[in-house]
Design brief:
about 230 residues, mainly beta, Immunoglobulin-like, 3 domains, 6-stranded mixed beta sheet
């Protein structure tokens, strides 16, 4: 394993093992607070401090484990959190794509650039450029037919939920950052047992059932659109 030299990290004083991670600092094993590191999948090859991302041209998965490492890198768009770097070829090995996926707290971002002879500029991918974002939604049920789309800052949702019993204050799903309204959106929905309900989607992205006329089993149906947060 590569050494992670994080000279600015204080030694942890916590006695809760879940709050600690092991690092190698100046050749010595030490414990550090896990809050110093971003939350990301660290499967792949670790990126070393001071590396130039222009030199990562071999297809594979790489990662920067912490903001302190990212801040030392050359030609990176991310300096305030750890990240995953995916290097891929398209058509030939001389045509390279780099994709960075970063998560800092509750904020996620995707950055992309290509090399067809020289590296282009990093481009941040907005969810508005993605035809559907269903894969980014957190479901608390298994819907049978669902459609999400963002065009500019307008979000459209067509939803047919799971055949189950629903109740007030239930959280049905959570929309990702960038696809949430700036304030609560209230709307009616129907359940195929002829029950009716009122739901809301808030700035936190949660679709919550405000009230429902019957707790009988059935599927929630609705079609809505709204303007996403800016």
């Amino acid at each position: 394993m590569s050494e992670v030299k994080v000279s600015e990290l204080p030694e942890a004083s916590s006695v809760n093992d879940e709050d600690l991670v092991m690092i190698v600092q100046d050749g010595v094993n030490k414990q550090a607070k896990s809050s110093k590191f971003s939350t990301l999948d660290v499967n792949g090859t670790q990126i070393s401090s001071g590396d130039d991302l222009d030199n990562y041209t071999t297809a594979g998965v790489y990662y920067s484990i912490a903001a302190q490492i990212s801040a030392s890198l050359i030609n990176t768009p991310i300096t305030d959190s750890g990240f995953k770097l995916i290097v891929e070829y398209f058509e030939t090995e001389s045509r390279i794509m780099q994709t960075i996926r970063a998560k800092n707290g509750s904020t996620s971002a995707i950055w992309v650039r290509t090399n067809t002879g020289s590296w282009g500029k990093w481009k941040k991918v907005d969810l508005g450029e993605i035809e559907g974002f269903q894969g980014l939604v957190t479901f608390n049920e298994t819907p049978s037919n669902v459609y999400f789309k963002k065009n500019g800052n307008k979000v459209a949702i067509s939803y047919q939920g799971e055949n189950k019993t629903h109740s007030s204050d239930e959280v049905v799903f959570v929309l990702p950052t960038g696809c949430r309204p700036s304030k609560n959106v209230y709307f009616p929905f129907t359940i195929n047992t002829s029950a009716l309900g009122v739901g809301r989607i808030g700035a936190d992205g949660k679709f919550i059932i405000n009230q429902v006329s019957s707790t009988s089993q059935g599927r929630i149906y609705f079609n809505i659109s709204f303007f996403a947060e800016q």
